[in-house]
């Protein structure tokens, strides 16, 4: 990949050894170079130059600190848990309007912090016994004081794929997409299936096509709230479509010239392409040879 995919490429040492060493974690908090990412709920607050806003640790703020890692200069970077009662909306559109203000590395740093804060906001109680839990491991886990259960942040695997048939690929749209917008089809991996099986199942369920020769292309963390997008290709056995209209509003086969026109935002393109942060765009660019 010539450039990092959206939300990848953070140059930050995750410092796992500090997460498990209470003395090292305390020393990181006491480091005068330590900074904390400023968030509004889970949305970032733009700094003076439009990028992320990092501020010195505020001793008056009693919210728990979570260690994101150590930057190239050796300075610890933290984020705090969301305030009690803060609005944590994983589908907020506010952040989508602000993301173009960030560099690729800042977007990656923010994406990881956003997913972590969101997870803690949604997992304040033990899934085993229901008792409130406490942060531990530098903020990368929660522990139940009642039953001893330990809980750790998770990501949800999602397959996102282009089906091919005779030099064309399939793109589709959901009803909530902007007018004219089409993208690669996608779906969550279910328990008990491989990535290849998930690709085949989703394409059959949503578009009614049978595929073979599933291959991996690339992956991308997607912090809305915390998914791992696994980009794939597959070869369709027949182009006839039978859409599940509860999932897909419309779908169509497009050739390379049409994909290139959409990626170039040509007025005559048959659809609007996904934004640069999305792996769906990378899949289309890769397939189109761009």
TrEMBL record:
One BP term from GO: NADP+ catabolic process
Keyword NAD carried by entry: yes
Keywords: Hydrolase, Magnesium, Metal-binding, NAD
Top-rank taxon, per record: Bacteria
UniProt catalytic activity: a 5'-end NAD(+)-phospho-ribonucleoside in mRNA + H2O = a 5'-end phospho-adenosine-phospho-ribonucleoside in mRNA + beta-nicotinamide D-ribonucleotide + 2 H(+)
GO CC terms of this entry: cytosol
GO molecular function list: metal ion binding; NADH pyrophosphatase activity
EC number, as in UniProt: 3.6.1.22
Keyword Magnesium: yes
Gene3D superfamilies reported in the protein's UniProt record: 3.90.79.20, Nucleoside Triphosphate Pyrophosphohydrolase
PROSITE patterns xrefs: NUDIX (PS51462), NUDIX_BOX (PS00893)
Requisite cofactors: Zn(2+); Mg(2+)
Every Nudix hydrolase domain range: 153-285
Pfam families: NUDIX (PF00293), Zn_ribbon_NUD (PF09297)
Similarity remark: Belongs to the Nudix hydrolase family. NudC subfamily.
UniProt protein name: NAD(+) diphosphatase
């Amino acid at each position: 990949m010539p450039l990092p995919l959206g939300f990848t490429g953070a140059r930050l040492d995750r410092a796992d050894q500090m997460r498990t060493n209470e003395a090292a974690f305390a020393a990181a908090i006491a480091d005068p170079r330590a900074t904390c990412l400023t968030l509004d709920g889970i949305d970032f607050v733009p700094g003076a130059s439009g990028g992320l806003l990092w501020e010195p640790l505020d001793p008056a703020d009693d919210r728990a600190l979570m260690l994101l890692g150590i930057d190239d200069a050796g300075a610890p970077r933290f984020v705090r848990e969301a305030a009690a009662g803060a609005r944590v909306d994983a589908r907020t559109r506010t952040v989508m309007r602000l993301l173009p203000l960030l560099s690729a590395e800042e977007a990656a740093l923010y994406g990881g912090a956003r997913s972590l804060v969101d997870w803690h906001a949604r997992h304040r109680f033990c899934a085993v016994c229901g008792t409130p839990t406490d942060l531990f491991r530098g903020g990368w886990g929660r522990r139940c004081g009642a039953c001893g259960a330990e809980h750790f942040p998770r990501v949800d695997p999602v397959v996102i794929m282009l089906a091919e048939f005779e030099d064309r690929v399939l793109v589709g749209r959901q009803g909530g997409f902007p007018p004219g917008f089409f993208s690669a089809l996608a779906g969550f991996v279910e328990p008990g299936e491989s990535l290849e099986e998930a690709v085949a199942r989703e394409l059959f369920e949503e578009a009614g096509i049978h595929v073979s020769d599933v291959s991996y292309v690339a992956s991308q963390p997607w912090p809305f709230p915390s998914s791992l997008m696994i980009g794939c290709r597959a070869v369709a056995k027949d182009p006839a479509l039978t859409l599940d209209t509860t999932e897909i509003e419309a779908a169509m086969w497009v050739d390379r010239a049409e994909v290139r026109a959409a990626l170039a935002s040509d007025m005559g393109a048959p659809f609007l392409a996904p934004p640069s942060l999305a792996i769906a765009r990378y899949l289309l660019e890769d397939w189109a040879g761009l």
